Amino acid sequence: MNQIRTRVLSGELKYDNTVILTYKIEYPEMVFSSYELGRNAFNRYNRNLAINLENYVRGELYQSAKETYDYNKKNGFPVMVYEFINVFEITYNKDFIVSLYMDKYEFAGGAHGNTIRSSQNWNLRTGRQLPLSYFYPNNPNYVVDILKNIIGQISANPENYFDDYCKLVLDTFNPESFYVTENDIAIYFQQYDIAPYSTGIPTFLIPR
User: Fold this and answer.
1) pLDDT tens digits, residue range 42-76?
2) Confidence category of residue 184, pLDDT binned at 50, 70, 90
3) Which of 69, 101, 125, 143 lies 20 to 30 Å (CA to CA) from residue 92?
4) For the purposes of burial, counting CB atoms within 10 Å of the CB of 60, is it exposed (0-12), middle (13-18) or buried (19 or more)?
5) Contact status, residue 144 vs residue 167, Cβ threshold 8 Å
6) Contacts of 56 (CB under 8 A, 6+ apart)
7) Pairing of strands 3-15, 18-32
8) pTM to 2 decimals?
9) What's the rounded Cα separation, in Å, for the pair 208 and 97?
10) CATH for 131-208, among 3.40.50.720, 3.40.50.2300, 3.90.640.20, 3.30.360.10?
């Protein structure tokens, strides 16, 4: 098994001697693998991703937090602390395949924060990420079959989804929004794509 550890970038950003933004960015680092090419590509990709996220937080998001602080102070509103958290979960790690998802949470005011999920599915032999089609080599109609499966699962509990979920599933399905588990492929949709916020990130397990 490839050995993966968690690295962290974190901080508190102040303005006017007040903390207005906190962040914690977790990202994976592969410390051992039999596939050096893949290990190097994996680490480079995730390190760059973490650095880019930190640059966004310390730049654009911090500027927004300052503007909100100034507005709230001017109008007598309480101080609002922005928050940014990035976490990951390794879902499959065997031989030359490593799969994971990342959840990027951002709170910048409002009733609640928002989470965006992304995923990575690595072929460590080649140092490249695998497309969904890789896992269905003998099924040219795999997308249609996956969509039918998802709509069938939703129909069992439709109250958790928007009324027009059939159309929304077809409109918002993203073939890059998947990760691998022991026996299945997990297909996910972003918040509000096919369901209200209370449903979270809708995820469907499809046999592979």
Assistant:
1) 999 999 999 999 999 999 999 999 999 999 999 99
2) very high
3) 143
4) exposed
5) no
6) none
7) antiparallel
8) 0.95
9) 15
10) 3.90.640.20
> Given a cut of 90, is residue 208 above it in pLDDT?
no
What are the tens digits of pLDDT across the range 91-124? 999 999 999 999 999 999 888 899 999 999 999 9
The pair of structure tokens assigned to 179 is 């990760």
Amino acid, res. 100: L
In CATH terms, 1-130 corresponds, of 3.20.20.70, 3.90.1150.10, 3.30.565.40, 3.40.50.10540, to 3.30.565.40
* Token output for 172: 């918002």
| Rounded Cα gap, residues 185 and 208, in angstroms | 6
Please state whether beta strands 82-94 and 178-180 pair in parallel, antiparallel, or not at all (unpaired). unpaired
